[in-house]
Design brief:
Blueprint lengths: L1 H6 L2 H19 L18 E4 L13 E10 L5 E10 L5 E4 L3 E4 L4 E10 L9 E7 L1
Antiparallel strand pairs: 1-2, 2-6, 3-5, 3-7, 4-6
């Protein structure tokens, strides 16, 4: 085969190679993009408060109370959230407790109890409790 190839004049050999390349490229030209679909995806927050997310509590030393915060989940998937709290100024005799994690069912809601306890020796002041729901 090699002998046959070498016996062909170089001009014809290059012509055959060129035709082969053009045939391969030309054959590929038949595959073209006829249509293109474009999908824009917007990921929305699925968690929201049901009712208020701001509360005012007046309480005396030695008392306790509970505030309920209800979260809704618009997603069809269950969402596990971790809860963090920050109290300012630094609490003196104020204890706030709540679950560390809650699972909000898909297309459902969950109520979180925020328990507030004030010791008998608590210093009267106004404290701000911020609660973060982290997914």
């Amino acid at each position: 085969m090699r002998k046959l190839w070498k016996s062909i004049p170089s001009v014809i050999r290059w012509s055959l190679v060129t035709m082969l390349i053009l045939t391969m490229v030309g054959g590929a030209a038949y595959a073209y993009v006829a249509l293109t679909a474009k999908v824009e995806v917007t990921i929305e927050e699925c968690l929201s408060f049901v009712g208020s997310n701001s509360f005012e509590v007046g309480i005396y030393p030695g008392e306790a109370t509970t505030v309920q915060v209800t979260i809704a989940n618009a997603s069809s998937a269950d969402m596990e959230v971790e809860l963090d709290k920050e109290i300012t100024p630094e609490p003196d005799g104020l204890t706030v407790s709540m679950p560390k994690k809650v699972t909000i069912p898909g297309q459902g809601q969950e109520t979180v109890n925020v328990n507030i306890l004030v010791s008998k020796s608590a210093v009267p002041d106004t404290y701000t409790v911020s609660i973060d729901f982290n997914r």
